[in-house]
Amino acid sequence: MAGKTMRAVQYSGYGGGFSALKHVEIPVPSPKKDEVLLKLEAASINPVDWKIQKGLLRPLLPPKFPFIPVTDVAGEVIELGSAVKDFEAGDKVVSMLSVKKGGGLAEYAVASSNLTVNRPPEVSAADGAGLPISACTALQVLKSGGAQFDGTTKPLNVLITAASGGVGHYAVQLAKLANLHVTATCGARNIEFVKSLGADEVLDYKTSEGASLKSPSGKMYDIVIHCTVGIGWSTFEPNLSDHGKVIDITPSPATFLSSALKKLTFAKKMIVPLLALPTKADMQYLAGLVKDGRLKTVVDSKYPLSNAEDAWAKSIGGHATGKIIVEISST
Length: 331
Description:
One of its GO terms (molecular function) is oxidoreductase activity. The protein is of the alpha/beta class. It has two domains: 5-130 and 297-327, Alpha-Beta Complex (Quinone Oxidoreductase, Chain A, domain 1), CATH 3.90.180.10; 136-273, Rossmann fold, CATH 3.40.50.720. Helix content is 27%, strand content 27%. Strands 3, 4, 5, 6, 7, 14 and 15 form a seven-stranded mixed β-sheet that branches. α8 links the parallel β12 (240-248) and β13 (270-273). It is globular and about 65 Å long. The two termini are 17 Å apart. The model has no long low-confidence stretch (mean pLDDT 94).
């Protein structure tokens, strides 16, 4: 691929939202010894992608401009680095690209072989591209709360906020696979959708009952998977079991402070910040669940690479049901 060019979408500074995305023609990257070059078929936008653009992780990310955003992709292996032994050209895969390098909004990208897994034929590119950050986060949050996926989980009650979103819709399905009782919150238009994922109880977050987070059946929550913002500890605390914990996947500095104070005072009820790091093992497990029909990626909308800025704006809007997918190519 040396000397060839590709279409890509990038931005050249902090801020600007979708209007700052620019379509460019740049050289196809080359894989290092432990990397694979992928011809991308689909990419999935996560909120962290545009939060990085807003500058919420400056000066760490991005390390330099211009920057091609998005990390969660599915595609086909085109070239192998010299040290890569577990893939072959032509393999269909799911991968999480380097957060520092990005590269998902492009026709080709290099990926670490350590965060790339084979994609079974039963798993479409869109299905696979949704998994790395969102599904891995849902899986790791549930595990950190005590859920087991081997049939040995003790009865637990879980609350999932923003259950119709990217992480939330996977969390509902995975919680039911672990035989947990699921109470979920979402907007009124998504109540039946969230029920269809397996939720036992669903609250409209805009009603007084939903705002209080109280289980309709009076259950106290052992785990809260907190996928949104703007809900204070005073709302969570009366709904928690004696040793219940709120696991916050978008923690603010206040979350870290509150968590530290509760540890210092030996509080039984906890709030725990969690920044999930996808692993190869988790991605393989999740791809297997999709293959077997036990987990599904719900796609809110699909956009071609030529309209990537529309997908970006949709994600910033914050009301997607499931995942937003950018289709790069079909071959």
